[in-house]
Design goal:
The chain has three domains: 165 residues, no CATH class; 125 residues, 60s Ribosomal Protein L30, Chain: A; 175 residues, Fe-S hydro-lyase, tartrate dehydratase beta-type, catalytic domain (fumarase, Alpha-Beta Barrel), CATH 3.20.130.10. Helices cover 34% and strands 24% of the residues. It contains 15 helices and 19 strands. The longest helix has 20 residues. The protein is globular, with a radius of gyration of 23 Å.
């Protein structure tokens, strides 16, 4: 009988979470590199390049791939011949491993988990508790899959209780435009079919733990309905032209995963959960011989790619920028930002809008300034800030008109598209929205030369910072006339792809 010690499980979970914070799975890197080589849209190719460069930097620097270091999901399969040498429950052991990983001084991970989700939404401080799934199985080992799921991609999850005769492919393709680009494509779509509502969601999440192998499936052909769906959806989703970061292009998904389960005769539960460009998961076994050992990948597994500034790049000094200059920017322009840049995301925006509604002055003057939607990782060693990539901009849409009209804000920087309300407000106020690449947080942080909290310190990672940046790369995603590259880009590439089929 195998004896699993408490400390071995705790340390293994902690080590696994640190490991996946800076190492992409090898299959993901290979698939992303193939997408980079295949991509013909310069904007999408540039975004993939930044993701790959960021990934290699994180692998060598042991710092997080994305500033959103995720909510932890753990699948534990416990062998029935296992005996525990432990005083804590299984859930408590897993959560202690999470706590250890997220507070490790050498690589502090961002705590994003909030208790009292519909009330005070207070940060737990150590990213606990995790989402834990248990299964008792034959055998004498404990098999564990650990994943860290970013909030931006998780927010784009979809579920429906379809009628038995409804077409799953049609439903998935109907949901895809509603998901936007906030899940940071190219990535994977996990699809769960059957069971009950909660089972379908679990199947979708679990499917994302499988390696990328769509090319092997294409070569041998489908052997069951789930594999038929994978092949059909992989082809049709990529034909949509959504592309990397929603900019339009040839690759929207690297793979499609499908798991199914028997269901009631009256039901067809279907769930979609996307996995973003910060794909983070690893599997290990405990057999009683000690903590799990996770081998470091070879740096040669990462392609050597250089990011080059195009000829039409605009270099901008944020400290002297005028509204007139902003109106010269064109959709799709690459802009390198230098100077002082404010930050703020959900909690800071809500607080500012509430203050404005009460007639109270804001703690920071935002006239003719830019605000960056980001919640950075804490710095370590000599860093001025930890990885600091953009968060999903659409969450700030409902605040955008108030912020533009009552503060004199000139523009915003975030991830993915803006919705109709925000685009209308941007157009009406002759402002602009700039997009940074999601999944390139460590690379972005290299452009930040100074960081200081200037307001709302109690909000932690959601406080308002003032960054001093140098050549921070962004793309003009919505210009002062309300033209959005997230609408024009995919439409153009969908037509290009259709002409080739």
């Amino acid at each position: 009988m195998t004896v699993i010690r408490q400390e071995d499980l705790i340390q293994s979970v902690a080590d696994a979470l640190q490991y996946i914070s800076y190492y992409h799975p090898k299959d993901f890197i290979e698939a992303m590199h193939a997408a980079y080589q295949r991509e013909e849209n310069p904007a999408a190719r540039d975004a993939i390049a930044q993701i790959l460069i960021n990934s290699r930097m994180c692998a060598t620097g042991h710092r997080p791939i994305c500033q959103d270091t995720g909510i932890v999901t753990v699948f534990v399969h416990v062998g029935m011949n296992v005996r525990w040498e432990a005083e804590m429950s299984l859930d408590d052991m897993v959560n202690e491993g999470v706590r250890r990983a997220y507070t490790l001084p050498d690589n502090v991970l961002r705590a994003s988990v909030l208790a009292d989700p519909d009330g005070q939404r207070k940060n737990t401080g150590d990213n606990t508790p995790a989402i834990i799934h248990h299964k008792l199985v034959p055998g004498d080992t404990v098999e564990i899959h650990v994943a860290a799921k970013g909030g931006g991609s998780e927010a784009k999850s979809k579920f429906a209780m379809l009628n038995p005769s409804d077409n799953v492919v049609d439903w998935v393709l109907e949901q895809l435009p509603k998901m936007g680009a906030g899940w940071c494509p190219p990535g994977m779509l996990g699809i769960g079919i059957g069971g009950t509502a909660e089972k379908a969601m679990e199947l979708a999440k679990e499917s994302l733990l499988d390696p990328i192998d769509i090319q092997a499936l294409q070569a041998r052909g489908a052997e069951n309905r789930a594999e038929e769906l994978r092949l059909e959806l992989f082809d049709k989703v990529n034909r949509t032209g959504i592309g990397a970061q929603g900019l339009g292009g040839l690759t929207t998904v690297l793979d499609i995963k499908v798991k199914d389960y028997p269901t009631h005769a009256a039901n067809k539960p279907v769930a979609i959960i996307p996995n973003c460009a910060a794909t983070r998961h690893v599997h290990f076994s405990l057999d009683g011989t000690g903590a799990a050992t996770l081998p470091a990948p070879k740096i040669d597994d990462w392609p050597e790619i250089t990011w080059e500034v195009g000829e039409g790049v605009r270099r901008v000094n944020l400290d002297t920028l005028t509204p007139e200059a902003v109106r010269e920017w064109q959709p799709g322009d690459t802009v390198l930002l230098s100077g002082k840049l404010l930050t703020g995301r959900d909690a800071a925006h809500k607080r500012m809008v509430d203050m404005l509604s009460r007639g109270e002055p804001l703690p920071v003057d935002m006239k003719n300034r830019f605000i960056y939607y980001v919640g950075p990782v804490n710095p370590v060693a000599d860093e001025v800030v930890g990885p600091a990539g953009p968060t999903t901009a659409t969450r700030m849409d409902k605040f955008t008109r108030t912020m533009l009209e009552e503060t004199g804000l000139l523009g915003m920087v975030g991830k993915a598209e803006r919705g109709p309300l925000a685009i209308e407000a941007i157009r009406d106020n002759q402002a602009v929205y700039l997009m940074a690449v999601g999944g390139a947080a460590y690379l972005v942080a290299q452009a930040i030369k100074k960081a200081e909290v200037v307001a709302f310190d109690d909000l932690g990672m959601e406080a308002i910072y003032e960054f001093e940046v140098e050549d921070m790369p962004v793309t003009v995603a919505v210009d002062h006339q309300g033209t959005s590259v997230h609408q024009t880009g995919p439409a153009k590439w969908k037509e290009i792809i259709a002409e080739r089929v």
